[in-house]
Amino acid sequence: MKRTEKESGLINFLKASIIGLIAFIPFIYNPNYFFPFFSAKTAVFQGSIIILLFLFLYAIHLGKARLPKLDMVGASFLFFIGCMFISSIFGLDFGHSFWSAFERGTGLLFYVSLFVLFILLKSIFKTERDWAKLYFGIALSMTVIAVFTFFDQNIGNFFGGGFTLGNSSFVGASLLFPMFVSFIALPKIFGKKKGYIMAGIIFLISVLCPIFINTPGIFSGTIDGVMSLAGEARGAALGLFFGAISSAILYASFSSKKAIKMSGIILGVILFSVVLVGTLKLVTPGSAINQKFSDAAWPNRFIYWDIGIQGFKENPVFGQGHEMFVAEFTKNFDPIILTPKYLNEYFVDRPHNAYIEIIYNFGIVGALAFAFLIFSLFYSINLGRKNLRINNLEASLLYGLIISYLIQNIFIFDTMIPLILFVITFGFISFISSNEKDNENNGKFYQLMEHPFSPIIFGAILITAFIFFAYLPAFKSKSYVKIATAKDPIERASLYDNGQIISVGDSTDNPVIAEMVFNQISKFTSASVNMTAQDKSAVVADLKGAIEFAERGAERFPYYQRTFTVLASLNNLAAYFSPQQDRGAFIMEAEKWGNKAVEVSPNNPQGLWVLAQVYEIVTEWELSYEMLDRAIEIAPYQKTSYMRGMIVAMEEGNKEKYDEYVDLLLVTFPQLTEKDYPAWGSVQKVQRIAK
Questions:
Q1: What is the pTM (predicted TM-score) of this model?
Q2: Superfamily name with CATH number, domain 475-676
């Protein structure tokens, strides 16, 4: 009897732990991690999943848990992840695909963790009340997120408007789930009347959040059109709108009354047609919908979509690998992004459209796998309705949730919290669609698990996995922060030398950290005349560490232009602080990396800027002008090229060339005046690196 109680307690502990983890993880924010919004979340989630897996296997060992049978939802999810792995193995960089960048945390490892979560949910959450408690935890958690996001956007702005999720679009995608499932879960806990009232309150709080509706504009009376009514997360708002309408139409189509049923079907066909035509018009340049969206949101997204589609054509079957869009963006950088209508974004790692990202990353095979996964969800919801595991209203709400999520993904990409919530919905749909009991066969796996030493064996395996997949990446993230925030060059140089950077994780984070180091050290240049030789030597040692650090990224990921521009800039700065006899080697390296930057991203002017700086340092004025002229030709609406040209001309003492750049600048930007650009003679002459 004691053993039974112990076993039941373990299962209950697993349930409570999963509910607590899912409810708590959106709030995790730790500035001690590189990219504090996601790095800490990733470490906690992946580490917790490993611990929960250990406890689940121990429950199997005790005979209190069984592996679930893999139904249609589980099989399609596993098949999709398998396609992700195949595409990534034969893609551009499996390491990047596996680990992801700290800013995202959604590599292949994360998807494996999601599948483990799915298995745990399907094995442990056995009753409607279990699922209701889980969704209640999600609803409470996300309602708090909605409230604090409101205050973050309108009062404090402590987190940039997205509270602990880092971005208003990510908040919007996450809030979609409780807005629908609260109407399913809460009536099962509190009774229909009270439950629906509570669900309605949660819905109202979420919808009034500026994420979905321009609440400040409503209160201030500044709304002047439909587009100005939209909140910060317009994709999520659009998803909510169509998802809610879809739920209502589907509920009508399930009616036993023929007239209502036919009305629902007709309205459903009309809605589907509207969405289909609207989507086609959205991606058609020059259309009214395309233009309105360009004016109301970031027009850059249409550029990203085009780049992704062009990249898909290069490898249409299996794609380029998970999270590899950054390579395509680098290669096919479109300088139109640098014109006034667009945002100056030099580095983008996602096309801001989940479906273009899928076809680019995984090709036709992956797209078909994803389509099958979505089909399995819709099919399983209908199966659950027919089996009377859910009623017509609950089925309609689940359909609406999926539709809302699919629509908002036209404008954004999947991130950690929405993905976790989406997979939980996978588990619930799998639960309602199946009447099957646990797998009762006594195969070799269960015989192995019954062995008295099995907990020690799988415990050792999972401890190793925890160290390698959770602890070491977290340690690496903290080490990155130490490097980026170190105030003393000697201290930072020791961080490189002591080997605190572990050989796990991604390499696209390296240039970001190296760039932070560059920005810190470049502040010392104005005071360099008064620095001692020892101080300069310490700075150079620091820069050498940063250069070696960035070079590891360049070796791992040779498609990333940012790495090369950073390396060129670091070498230029090292030459500045080095004795005369040591400058040549740094200059040669700077030129090499600058040329590499231009090679991998010929339409990005940043590579030409660093080359112009190289030639400015060695007083090769004509070559410096040539680089800047090429940059102007590529991106005429980027002021930086003209400004740098003026500074080079002042360094040379060439008034004619200075006037030439001023004239070019004013032709492109006629609204500028003398106060908007460096006046002749305003740049104080400094001791040049090479004379």
A1: 0.89
A2: Tetratricopeptide repeat domain (1.25.40.10)
